[in-house]
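Mods, move this if it's the wrong board.
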Amino acid sequence: MPCVGSSVRVIVYSAFFSVEWSERHFADLLCRLPDSLHPQVLRFRRWQDRQCSLLGKLLLADALEEGGYDPELLNKIRYSNHGRPFIDGVDDFNIAHSHQGVVCAFGINTTVGVDIEQKRVVKPRNFSLCMSEHQIVDMEAQTDPDVALLTMWVEKESVVKAHGVGMSYDFRRLEADGPRYRIDHSDYYIHHLSVHKDYQCCVTTDAPAVEIDLKPPRLE
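Not the wrong board. Structure tokens:
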């Protein structure tokens, strides 16, 4: 939790693309990253995944600079046992992507988790491993079940990512209490953001009141 009296802020960066980049453009952007991170980007077979991976790291570089850190600290990225990225001595951050959209949340004096999902047609019953029965019934009764499901999904995933337990957590156990979720005796607070008309996005913090600085999206 942040110290009493500390400024609590989340800076949110996003980027979206619509086409596969040329080899030259991809190479130019990749060169902005430390050489040690190139294999993490190039390991993906699908061009969409490669571009999302690259953009996520570029957004993190922007966040580091905005937070007063040296962007070269990208070289110091480590991962928890659950695959959560972190950099020793740096404020918390989290990255998510869906389809052709990427978002990076950088928390100052707060733990942060983020998720983004492309808006699409979904069936609540197909998410029975992630939603409790009464949540599914409630979503099916909504005027727009697709929106209801994706809204709850970005909430749950951002909460789990903030807590750092990974996707192995039983999402059915997560129940909202207004803007708050409790997980393993810890409280997290959700903040829905409008980053793109075709995507839903949610940032979760362990602080109930935060200043959110939503940066204009990068369009590639």
